[in-house]
Amino acid sequence: MKLINLEGLTLFGPGSEWLWSMLQLVVVAVSLIGLYRQVRLQSSAGAIEQATALASDWNSEALHRSRLAALLPLRDGVDQPGGSDQATVHVGDYWERVGWLVRSGHIDRRIVYAFVGNRVRLWWTLLAPNAQRLRELQQDPGIYEHFEWLANTVAAMDREAGYTMNYDDDAYRGELIEANILRSQAAIQQAEELRAVLVHPLSTAVLAPTGGAATRPEVHSPDPAVG
Predict the structure, then answer these.
(1) How many domains does the chain have?
(2) Mean pLDDT across the stretch 143-165?
(3) CA–CA dist 99, 104 (Å, integer)
(4) What is the secondary structure of the chain as a DSSP string?
(5) 16 in a domain, yes or no?
(6) 13 pLDDT exceeds 90?
(7) Element at 195 (helix H, strand E)
(8) 49-93: per-residue pLDDT in tens?
(9) Computed over its alpha carbons, how large is the radius of gyration of the chain?
């Protein structure tokens, strides 16, 4: 019994169109597979770049200083509308920008959720009163609307994942504030230490008193062959 009947098949010349059509389909299929893999690689590279940019901005020294300036009055229960307002605006603007990028489709919300999701919920809880004051002061309900949207989006993703963090709980929020203060203080200290200049002498010469010549300290070796 013949499984494949090759009688009457033409590979070249008239009647061989079926073969070339099949080869074209194979070439197209291979090209699509290659394109799919390339798109996946580009998507992965783009996701890594987005995550790196988010982390780099959030962990910058300038933002650490603003975060610290905003957190200290909150921990101490002191309302400081001067410098702390400038700091809270800096932090709020960061989250507003991230929220707009996610909402506009420029950054995948899953990347934000994986890398900074818990932070946006905490900071919206902390800065929501300040956002409301700005809305009333400027009569603009759209102030920090993307920040608020992002916090609500992450909260919904938390519920879907089964996470039940309650940022409205005073004790839990206080622990997070203290932990973030320590983290920002450590980051600022590290940045300052990296900028410190350590001066090392280029020579072991001992400077003589003013007007004298520099001399080297005399070395006494227990081995007469050394010297």
Answers:
(1) 1
(2) 93
(3) 8
(4) --SS--TT--SSSTT-HHHHHHHHHHHHHHHHHHHHHHHHHHHHHHHHHHHHHHHHHHTSHHHHHHHHHHHHHHHHT----SHHHHHHHHHHHHHHHHHHHHHTTSS-HHHHHHHHHHHHHHHHHHHHHHHHHHHHHHT-TTTTHHHHHHHHHHHHHHHHHT----TT-HHHHHHHHHHHHHHHHHHHHHHHHHH------S--PBPPSTTSPPBPPP---SSTT--
(5) no
(6) no
(7) helix 170-195
(8) 777 778 888 999 999 999 999 999 999 987 655 444 889 999 999
(9) 33
Query: Please, are residues 112 and 98 in contact by the beta-carbon 8 Å criterion?
Result: yes
Four-point Cα dihedral 156, 125, 67, 82, nearest 10: 150
Decide if 150 contacts 98 (C-beta within 8 A): yes
- pLDDT, one tens digit per residue, over 154-163 is 999 999 999 8
Q: Round to whole Å and give the CA distance between 134 and 172.
A: 26
Q: Is 71 contained in some domain?
A: yes
- Token duo for residue 96: 């507003």
User: Cα(126)–Cα(132) distance, rounded to whole angstroms?
Assistant: 12
Domain-embedded: residue 151: yes
**Domain that residue 58 falls in:** 50-194
Residue 177 carries which side chain, given as an amino acid letter? I
Q: Residue 64 and residue 91: Cα distance in Å, rounded?
A: 9
Rounded to an integer, what distance in angstroms lies between the CA atom of residue 31 and that of residue 100? 36
User: Can you read off the two tokens belonging to residue 110?
Assistant: 């899953």
Return the pLDDT at 22. Answer: 64
Identify whether 143 is part of a domain: yes
Tokens coding 117: 């999701």
The one-character DSSP state at 208 is P
